Amino acid sequence: MEATTFGExxxxxxxxxxxxxxxxxxxxxxxRLVRIDEVPCCARSRIRWWGAHNPALFVVSVVLxxxxxxxxxxx
Length: 75
Prior knowledge:
This protein has 2 helices and no strands. By secondary structure, the protein is mostly helical.
């Protein structure tokens, strides 16, 4: 089994961060398009939860992306 290099770990962190940013942006668009009154009752709590936690997801994803870029520059 080969050892994982620092550059590979940094690239993985960068990819996870970029994927998180993409999900957060798509989620923000979806939250703006959804009318809460037209959604079934079983999904309303999930929509509220995502609406409350989407900014935190975006911030964590940006931090991971910046850390991945910094790691790649350091490698």
